[in-house]
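Hi support team,

I've been running sequence recovery on a batch of backbones for a student project. Most finish fine, but this one hangs at about 90% for roughly twenty minutes before it completes. I'm not sure whether the input is malformed or the queue is just slow. I've pasted the structure tokens below so you can try to reproduce it. Let me know if you need the job ID as well.

Thanks,
M.K.
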């Protein structure tokens, strides 16, 4: 089975934390996430992990013993921000601000309209999460949200890239297909953007230029550490990833006793070094 046939869309977003219980409370109280699983395991030392969901958006918050300082010292990463769909955008932003959420420096005055993304533009406001991760509330003006109100789970995950074409090709090999495009004019120059989709999960690939492109090289692992994609069969995906020349980080397929029957997973690197976990939740 090719990797593209094995991958079944997004599974979770991995966010490391130095304060697991505080982060869980922050997500529950401020954005309406619900914790549905929590476990302490031994993996390179003590690892506490909690899984939370907001409709189809699952985040894995994890605290690795001894890595607090490293986590706190991380800056913005190649995985730049994640975005939650907000049909009644103004209300959602007002509620976030009433809860005391702070704007991220990328949208210092709050809501911005991106005229040239998608057919009818996009509205977004970037907020700072409990681990300094960037969380966008996003309203895509091309989507008919009907009467839905409140935060709706996944909108997209944004990745800053050095070569848009190379990134699109890489994700096409993982079964993504092109779903839209746009551009953004910035002081650095025009940033071209491509959207790719896998089973309803969208990546926003942002081609950097100028000083931003230079800085990308030193971004490394950021506050959003990895994105996990679901696979039907992790063993086969591991074999295929190695065979097709992917940069596989792990020597062996890893296992953790999460959920009822455990998970099997491994990590590959995308074209700019972004971490992509391929993960199978076992059903037996
Ligand atoms: Fe993960
Ligand atoms: Fe975005």
């Amino acid at each position: 089975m090719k990797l593209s046939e094995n991958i079944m869309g997004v599974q979770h977003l991995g966010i490391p934390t130095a304060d697991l219980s505080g982060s869980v409370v922050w997500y529950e109280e401020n954005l309406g996430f619900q914790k549905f699983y929590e476990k302490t395991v031994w993996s390179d030392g003590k690892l506490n992990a909690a899984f939370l969901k907001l409709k189809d958006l699952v985040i894995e918050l994890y605290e690795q013993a001894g890595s607090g300082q490293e986590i706190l010292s991380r800056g913005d990463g190649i995985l730049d921000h994640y975005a939650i769909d907000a049909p009644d955008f103004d209300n959602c932003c007002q509620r976030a601000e009433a809860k005391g959420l702070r704007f991220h420096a990328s949208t210092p005055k709050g809501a911005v309209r991106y005229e040239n993304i998608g057919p009818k533009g996009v509205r977004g406001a970037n907020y700072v999460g409990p681990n300094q991760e960037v969380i966008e509330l996003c309203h895509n003006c091309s989507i008919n949200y009907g009467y839905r109100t409140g935060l709706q789970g996944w909108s997209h995950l944004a990745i800053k890239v050095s070569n848009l074409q190379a990134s699109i090709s890489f994700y096409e090999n993982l079964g993504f297909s092109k779903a839209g495009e746009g551009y953004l004019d910035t002081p650095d120059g025009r940033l071209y953007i491509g959207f790719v989709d896998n089973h309803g999960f969208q990546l926003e690939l942002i081609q950097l230029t100028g000083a931003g492109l230079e800085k990308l090289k030193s971004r490394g692992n950021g506050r959003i550490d990895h994105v996990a994609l679901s696979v039907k069969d992790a063993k086969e995906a591991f074999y295929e990833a190695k065979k097709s020349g992917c940069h596989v980080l792990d020597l062996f397929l890893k296992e953790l006793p999460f959920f009822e029957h455990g998970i099997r997973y491994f990590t590959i690197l995308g074209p700019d070094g972004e971490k992509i976990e391929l993960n199978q939740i076992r059903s037996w």
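--
Follow-up from support: It reproduced on our side and the slowdown came from queue contention, not your input. The mean pLDDT is 96. No action needed from you.
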